[in-house]
Design goal:
The complex is a heterodimer of chains A (259) and B (536). Chain A has 259 residues and is of the alpha/beta class. Chain A is built from nine helices and ten strands. In chain A, the strands form two sheets. Chain A has a six-stranded mixed sheet with strand order 6-7-8-3-9-10, with helices on both faces. In chain A, strands 2-1-4-5 form a four-stranded antiparallel sheet. In chain A, a hairpin with a 2-residue loop joins strand 4 and strand 5. In chain A, helix 3 crosses helix 4 and helix 3 packs parallel to helix 5. The longest helix of chain A is centred in the C-terminal third of the chain and has 16 residues. Chain A is globular. Chain B folds into two domains: 255 residues, no CATH class; 236 residues, no CATH class. Helix content of chain B is 77%, strand content 1%. Chain B has 18 helices and two strands. In chain B, helix 2 runs antiparallel to helix 3 and helix 2 crosses helix 5. The longest helix of chain B has 56 residues. The chains are: A alpha/beta (259), B mainly alpha (536). Chains A and B meet through helix 2, helix 3 and helix 4 of A and helix 10, helix 11, helix 14 and helix 18 of B. Chain B: Keywords: Membrane, Transmembrane, Transmembrane helix. Chain B: This is ABC transporter permease.
Chain lengths: 259, 536
Amino acid sequence: MTVPAPREGEQAAAMSLYGLVKRFDTKLAVSEVSLEVPAGSFYGLLGPNGAGKTTTLSMAVGLLRPDAGRAFLLGYDVWADPAAAKARLGVLPDGVRLFDRLTGPELLAYHGLLRGMDAATVDQRARELLDVLELGTANRTLVVDYSAGMRKKIGLACALLHAPRVLVLDEPFEAVDPVSAARIREILQRYVAGGGTVIFSSHVMEVVERLCSHVAIISDGVLRLHGTLASVRGERSLEDVFVQVVGGRTSTGSELAWL
Amino acid sequence: MALTATPRPPVSPWPFVKLKLRLIVGGLRGKPARIVLFVLGAVMAGFFAIGGYALFAVPGVVDDERAAGMLLQLGGAALVLGWVFFPLLFFGVDESIDPARFALLPLPRRTLIIGLFAAALAGLPALSTLAATAGMVSTAADLGGSGAAIAQLVGIVLGLLTCVAVSRAVTSAFATGLRSRRSRDLAVVLFAVVAALLGPLQLALLAGAERADWDAFAVLADVLGWTPLAAPWSVGLDVADGRLWAVPVKFLIVAGTLVGLLWWWSATLERAMLGAASTGTAGRGGDVGSPTGSLLGRRLPRTRFGALVAREIRYWWRENRRRAALITFTVAGFFLPLSISLSGGSAGPVATFIGLIAVIALANQFGYEGNAYAANMIAGVPGRVEIHSRVAAHAVFVIPLLLLIAVVAGLLGGRPENIPGDLGLMVATYGAGLGLVLPVSVRGAFALPESTSPFAMSSGGGMAKGLLTLGVMIGTLVATVPLQILAYLLGDVWLWIGLPVGAAFGCAAYLIGSGVAGDWLDRRMPELLAAVTPGR
């Protein structure tokens, strides 16, 4: 997997969010989130369930119209100039169906051609991805019949196929078995080393701590902390920082005594 | 935890009914569009109830026993058939109470069946049917006094139960049948058989109508009165006629039918609750060529448009709901004009209906695959490309069918010279229908539940689908009226110019509609995605 070298003049941050706001009915899902993701970073977006990670990322990649605020990818305004921004972007959304009545190879071919790639390149890369992710180059099973982990992997393959400059992955390691997770980590690390930028959300501390150069912690739709991993973590473990920032309840030992 | 023997809970359908009502209310909360649709649906149901009541009460008011016999029995039979076919064709079944969701609960099957049945009764269609058939009680009372009225009252309640039971059983069986891949192909054959059986019946009816032979109708009505279709609706009249012995027999017929239907339903439910576990039959076969080759086949261009069309074609064949829509169109498409042609009528006016039925499947085209559409948004597919590709894939199935229908109907009807003209009308209607349905599909998209049943509808969704469909049908009919008049006025000239004029009309309508739809789509992609995402 090769990543195109950064071109001249693309010094802008990989992703910049300015005051993103989203409200569902009466609930404020995301409140004034501003974030700068430096190009070439491995950025972890941490937060408990329902914190607004998916909502924020959806607004950043152009899937969900923000109520206020702006989002830029590599300097291109996602909502004003979507074509330029989306061409350089690969996305693995969470909770979004794939076109799952296609087989794995068909799905990859579909994504490649949708991105305007020529058929020969699509075939070559698709085979390589299917092979590396152990999905089987001749697998005739429809994606709808895949296991949850396989579905994550084929989704990741679709996001990687056109060699984007920025990868936005929502919960990429959820439901993936340890062997595949290691393979995915390796691919992503190589991708970042080659100059790509990965932004991913997770609530698994170990993964974030092991992979990320930068982290941001979000809870209740508000960005609580962000910066390099070292500056956020300080002397403590990331988990301690996270629990403290998010304000989780501490066990008193007397609950659920009947258990 | 101590293991105590819990007493067997009493069988009560109320929790299911409450759940259903709560789901309806919950589905409406904070969604003005849904509320509007619900109110519209309620108004339509009200019209149906009042109109039906008036219709069924008329024979009693004018004191015409023969008319009562025909109207109650034939009308009742039509109601039962309507309960079978309308969910299949137009509305879908409200599966907000999806049996599969109860699979893990320790419920005896009897409780489940009774509960689901009660929940199915708690809804606008059942209420309005009951209100409409109450007109029959009025007729029975006018003709035979209070005894007849009481018998008829029991009759219409039993009739309603029959309607609901047959509707649930048939759709459930159909959905379960379509679930495994192999049986879906069987379903196609079965459909053809059913259509072949319905054809002759329709012909007999038409022949009877042409000769205005009311006696034949009266006989048919009386015969139907001894079948489950019309037995519950005719008991009041039997009392009025003094045929008291017929009442218990008819009640027995209905009760037997109900038990049979419920048993059938519970058997298919069992299979439905086991879920789609058996569908993963496709294995790892040999390499059938490159990834792009397997997606596009030989002919389609290796471009974005080619990929979009190829995916849509795959989806029309591989997705249950879409396949059900295609099959419905195929059956209706052959069945309607053929029966008209064979009975000596002109297939022309019917031809417009065929083009119309074809586009209904597109009314909620974005709803079929849910938020998978996000992939196209992320890839930045422009609105017009999206729309054109979807129509191209639909036309791949529809245009050959239209051609075939026109040719077969023309040849069987003994009027081969009508083929081009009828085809022209069909293409014109198809184009006009597309022109209307495409913008509707962008603005009126709604989420379908992620169920494996092709007839599953979220609560309120069935109403939305029905209204959208109705609106598009009426609009298209209005739009093609000028062409119909032209075809009628021109007579033989239309035989020559029908095809080119119809095609031109259809193309123009399509271009306008697809342009509007494409521009709307460009502006509203995130809103569309939110609309088709289930559970928002």
